[in-house]
Amino acid sequence: MSDPTIAVASTSRNSDIPQKFTIDDTDTNSHRRSSSKLVGAPLLYTITCFASLGVFLFGYDQGVMSGIITGPYFKSYFNNPDSAQLGTMVAILEIGALITSLLAGTIGDKIGRKRTLFWGATVFIIGGAIQTGSTSFMMMVLGRIISGFGVGLLSMIVPIELANHRGKLACIEFTGNITGYACSVVSLSTNMTSNTTNIAQWLDYFSSYIKSDASWRLPLLFQCIIGGILALGSLVIPESPRWLLDNDQDDEGFRVLVDINGGYYDNAKADKEYREIKDAVEQDRLEPDRSYKCLFKKYKARVFIAMSSQLFAQLNGINVISYYMPLVMISAGWVGRDAILMTGINALVYIASTVPPWYLVDRWGRRFVLLSGAAVMCFALTLTGWWIYIDVPVTPTAVVICVIIFNAAFGFSWGPVPWLYPPEIMPLAFRAKGVSLSTASNWAANFIVGELTPILQDVIQWRLYPMHALFCACSFVLVYFLYPETANVPLEEMSDIFGDSGATEEEGEQISLHKQNRIARQSSVSLPSLASFTEYDRRHRRSEPNLHKSIINNPIKTLKKWIYKSKSTTEDPESSDSYERLDNTDV
Description:
Helix 19 packs antiparallel against helix 20. The chain is mainly alpha-helical. The longest helix has 29 residues. The protein folds into 3 domains: 194 residues, MFS general substrate transporter like domains (Growth Hormone, Chain: A); 185 residues, MFS general substrate transporter like domains (Growth Hormone, Chain: A, Up-down Bundle); 54 residues, no CATH class. The chain starts with a helix and ends with a helix. It is built from 29 helices and no strands. One of its GO terms (molecular function) is carbohydrate:proton symporter activity. Belongs to the major facilitator superfamily. Sugar transporter (TC 2.A.1.1) family.
């Protein structure tokens, strides 16, 4: 018995496709499967894993310094840097990230999401290599700022790439960040925000047993290896279907949607997503102005929410812990390797706390997760300052407990959600620019916190923690009164939530008409025909033979071919010559 959803899809196709391409529902070829070997859930998780390496890298690079700066060999090599020098060495990464995050929106719109991912990883590797081979304070600072350039690209483009999938997969990305953080204390650190830092922290701990300069060079070298894996992975993951459709590469965009939804051409869900995205693209093109000025004019509420979410993610105090956790432990009474060990244990809990949002961020909603997290973080930071102030025998243990509770609350809430929220509330035409601004606000606050924390720890001491608790309280109020719930709302329908629909108040009647006719418009969108899909699929197979083997056997030639294909398809996506030239290129 035939599936009624398939029948409906087939009927709607036949009405939109030229007669010579009309699909015969009795023909098994109408259910043609994509030639891609990786489709459906495995493809989604592959995209998520590789994209999460981008956040792993900046989580790792943040976390790795927290353990390195307390090491005796590091201090000796750099002539015992003072608090101001340590602050500069740690926080200069954010300056580089701030600069490129402002440019990343334009870059991402121009060359695509996956190519931005590749170049971000490449720049990061260069910066990591300079850090690893540093022979002076200024050389270390140079390596940090170059790595920051790469991080700025990655931290902007990864949330956009994963915004296509949202919810669980976007939160998995943050777990990758914290995992990197955890590795670094031991000498690695956890997730985009959590996981990466954790790995870095545990790497720091293990490296503390090395009795040479390798104790701090090895953790810095590790980030180059992960960056290389990300760069290679960016060659095999698909481009964002929304970017492809926005750049008139409809066949390839539809093929990506087909692959994501199981790999079969005759798929009702792929049909629906294609129509929704294509309709959104066509509506966005009615407004040709895609400048930052237009973004602020028409979507100022969305811009404010996106930027404030990232701003408070840093002002809430997470980097007081992520960057300077060993110093926090020392101020509480833990010394030497025990301080690093406590940081590593905290990092493991931090990673674990990022797992529940995989399942709860869509079920409970973004607002509840942010509100509950802000309340717990405020309570934990207040107690941290109080225990350090009274300085009693149980202070070291009490501070560790409070810090672990704080990190768990952040990993559950303000860690993943501010990276999920901005890309999903921004309209497609301004998504890259909007996320670019929100990411820039993150890095600006990140730099300020990283630069001032070691100084404030010396000057105001225990009062630093209640100060950040106040920011947590402010973020609670902001979310409660201003942040709308976006869970389970399609990206193309966010305008209904904010009531702007990309138009001014004088165009209210047009907005109403837009809402009433959306379904009718989407049903009239012409899907790529089976013949077109088959032809593109054939070209795809011929132009990318055995790509995985090619990368291993001849990575340089594979890279040249990939870059050439990127250029040719971007300049002339309908040119068959570009495919034929690629077909004749041996790899």
